[in-house]
Amino acid sequence: MNRESSWQSRHATKPWYRWMMFATVVTGTFMVNIDSSIMNVAIPVLEREFHTGPEVLQWVISAYLLVITGILPVIGTLSDRLNRKVIFIVGVSVFTFGSVLCAFSNSVEELILFRVVQSIGGSIIMGNVMSIVSYIFPAGQRGRPLGLIGSVVAAGTIVGPSLGGIFISLYGWRSIFWVNVPVGILSVAASIFLLIPIRSDKLPRKFDTIGSILFFVGIVSLMLVISEGQSWGWTNPRILAAVVLSVVALAVFLKHEFNFESPVIELTLFRSRAFALGNLAGYLSYIMMMMPGFILPLYMHDVLDISTAHMGLLLTPQAISMILFSPVGGWIADKYGANWPATLGLALATVGLGMMALLNSSSSYVAIVVALSVFGLGMGVFTSPNNVSVLESAPVEKSGLTGSLMAAVRNFGRVSGVALAVLFLQASGSNLNSSAGFARASSFAFSIAVLIGFMGTSLTITRLFIRTKKVAITAGSRE
C-alpha cells in the first residue's frame, strides 16, 4: 500500500496523471447523469409493470432529486473532514449497490426506496467531483477540466434517454439499472489505484447533527412545495403544512448555524460577494436552462404538431452546443479570468431565450435549432467560468462544501425552473388547449425567462467590478 501511495505521490503533479485522475472521477459523474435522465423513458413501462398511475411513479424521480439536494451540503462537510478519495469510492459503491437493488425491485414502493439508496450514493459522487478536481489541478488550470465536467453532464443527459430506450426495448426496464454495475466497478477500481489521498490539514471538529437535520427538513419541504404546488394546489393542506415546516426549519437552521462552532454550512462563505453572486447567478442559470426543456416539447407537439422522433432530434442542438463550448468557456477562464466569459455566456443564453420568445405557429425547424444552439452556446460558455469563480472565492479546504452547495443550487434551480415554467404558462391568460393559445403562452413564458436572464447577466456584470477575495473560515468569525 505504501509503495502504491509513493508511486501516486511521485506522479501526482504530472499533467498526464492529473488527467487520468480526472477521467476516473468523471466516470462516476457520467453514470449519475445517465441514470438521472434514463428514468424518464422508463415511466410508461413502469406504469404497465406495476399497474400504478403517474401520481405515484413520479416519486421514482422526485424522491431521488429531493434526497440528493437535501443531503449534499452534509456530504460536502463530511468530505472536508475526511479523505475525499475514500468518500468518493464509498459514493460510487453505494450508487452501484443501489442500482442492483433497483434492478431487483418487485413493487413500486421497493423501487422508490432503493432509488433513495441510489440517491445517497449519487449525492456523495456529485458532492466530491468538483472538490477533487480543484485539488488535483492548481489555480489557473481548473477552467478546462471544470468545462469538461459540464460536457460530461450534457453528454450523460443526451445519452440517457436514447440508451434507456434501446435497453428497455431489448432487455426490459431492469437493464437500465444493471448497466450501472460494470461502470461502477470500473470507477471504484480506477479510484483505488489512481486517486491520491486528499485530506484536510485541519483537525476535525464536532459534526453538526442538528444543523444537518434542520437543513434536510427545510430544503426538502421547500422543494416539495415548489415541485408539487401546481398539481396539489397552492391552498392544499399538505402544501400549506410543507410551507410552514420549511419556514420554521430553515429559520431555526440559520440561527443554529450562526451559533454553532462547526456548522454544516459555513454561512461566512457568503460574505464573499463573488461566492454569493456566483451561486445566485448559477441558480438563475439553471432556472433558465429548464425553460426550453419543459416548454419547447409542448410547443412542438401542441403548436407545430411535430412527431416525438423529430422532437428529440430538434432538442439535441442545445446539449451539443454545451458539449462543444463548455471546454471553450473553461479555456477562456484560465486564460483571461472567469468573469468576462461568464458575463458573455449568460448574455448569449438570454439572446437565445429571446429568439424562443419570437417563435409562433408558423415558425420553422431552423428557427428552433438556431435558438437552441445559441442558448446552448451561451450556457456552455457561462457554466465553467462561473464554477471557477465560485470555487476560487472559497478556501480550498472548504472545496467539498463549496462543490456540494453548487450541486444543491443546480438541483434547486432545476426544480424551480419547471415550477416557474408551468406558472408562467398559466399566468399568460391564454387558452393552453388551443395551438394559437399555447403559442402565445409559450412566447409570454420565454419573455419572462428573458427578464430572468437579464437579472443573471446583471449579477455577472457586477462581479467584473468586485475583487475576488477568499473568506477565511475561523471559529471566531461567527462570534
TrEMBL record:
GO cellular component, one term: plasma membrane
Domain Major facilitator superfamily (MFS) profile: 21-465
Gene3D superfamilies: MFS general substrate transporter like domains (1.20.1250.20), Multidrug resistance protein D (1.20.1720.10)
Pfam families attached to this UniProt entry: MFS_1 (PF07690)
InterPro entries: EmrB-like, MFS, MFS_dom, MFS_trans_sf
Record carries keyword Membrane: yes
Membrane-topology descriptor: Multi-pass membrane protein
Annotated TM spans: 21-44, 56-75, 87-106, 112-136, 148-170, 176-195, 207-226, 238-254, 275-299, 311-333, 340-359, 365-384, 405-424, 444-466
Gene Ontology MF annotations: transmembrane transporter activity
Keywords: Cell membrane, Membrane, Transmembrane, Transmembrane helix, Transport
Compartment annotation: Cell membrane
Main location: membrane
PANTHER family: MAJOR FACILITATOR SUPERFAMILY MULTIDRUG TRANSPORTER MFSC
Family label: Belongs to the major facilitator superfamily. EmrB family.
Record-given protein name: DHA2 family efflux MFS transporter permease subunit
Organism: Alicyclobacillus mengziensis
